[in-house]
Amino acid sequence: MPQLIASWLEELGLSESLVAVAAHLGALLIFLLLAFFSLWVARHWLSPVLKSFSTKSASDWGRVLAEKNFFHRLAHLLPVSVLYFTIDIFFPDTASGEVFRRLLLIAFVLVGLRSLDALLQGLNLILARHPLATGKPIKGYTQALTIIIYVLAGIFVIAIITDKSPWGLLTLMGGLTAVILLVFKDTILGFIASVQLSAHDMVRVGDWISMPQYNADGDVVDVNIHTVKVQNWDRTYATIPTYALVSDAFTNWRGMQESGGRRIMRALYIDMNSIGFCTPEMLVKLSEIELLQDYIANKEQEIQEYNAGHVKKTDNWVNGRHQTNIGVFRAYVTNYLRQHPKIHQEMTFLVRHLQPTPQGLPLEIYVFSREQAWAVYEGVQADIFDHLLAALPHFGLRVFQYPSGFDLRNAGFKAETLQAANEKVFSLPDRAK
């Protein structure tokens, strides 16, 4: 091309020095015009055609890759290829031709890098939608592969600029392993942790996890090679290093969510001074409670039959068996929860006593709610204990509670009243003085 331009300029009568400069400038101008034209064709013709074909395909691959601009980036290979294979025509055996050749090789690497990056993003999106990979940290693998591709691209660019073999640079990097491990420590740890999390199915996107040391208590919204992003219940976000989920302890509530129930474990502390045997009058009154009618009748018959065969004197409450208010109340709690529509009847169901404490006798309720959503679950739990706390006095029982200021003021008022009454009763009449 420069020779054709030079011969045409010589025919016009220009000097040899001017012809040489003009020939190279003309070749450069035509080369740049070809670059702009091929770039225009790639952006306004090739890229839309590829995108149109991909979006009309029945597979999700085409639509996802078009969404990630894969075809738009891939279309840029056209101008780079056209310029690279025509460079010998415009700059034959010249230093400028060698410079352009290296720049175009670097462009090849960069366009290929951007295209592979878009391909990996599409691959990550496709795999995330696949049923077998739902919730698994696939993003960590694609990010690790992306980092490897970027490192290799950097090596090839350096090799092109220095005109050295890329394999020699890889050998040099092998000798700098310690430095590489130090620089990419977090990335390597994160990648290994991602593999372990995926292999052992320790955490998925959507899991509810708790990790107090990182102020994390909520749903996992993203798992990548460096961090795990958690949206807490107060709508804040906490980021946890991926390798911390392997090296430190955390709680994953997925098992609870998959089981269909959420545990209720709470105790009522009964004042032990209010516990006693049920009198016949009390049993008659408690028999009016529908949930206890069958229980009291059956239990009373069982006790009478036992006492008739084993006890000689039943005039003392300690002799033989008798129903207690705490026992009847425990039966009531059991029957109440058994007929409750929000309590899971097929899972662990306990209404039990715990070891007495200075705060009273703990009557623990250990059941599972069918409702798992936090607000609904708390509402179910509150409704149950609202009812039980209100029902306690009907059984002659009291809940233990430390004295409050109101209690102490009432106690002081009663003491003063009692003292005044005593002084009035025991004071001497005036005539006796």
From TrEMBL:
This is MscS Mechanosensitive ion channel. Keywords: Membrane, Transmembrane, Transmembrane helix. GO terms for molecular function: mechanosensitive monoatomic ion channel activity. GO terms for biological process: cellular response to osmotic stress. Its main location: membrane. It is found in: Membrane. The chain crosses the membrane at residues 20-42, 70-91, 103-128, 140-161, 167-184. The keyword Membrane applies. It comes from Desulfurivibrio alkaliphilus (strain DSM 19089 / UNIQEM U267 / AHT2).
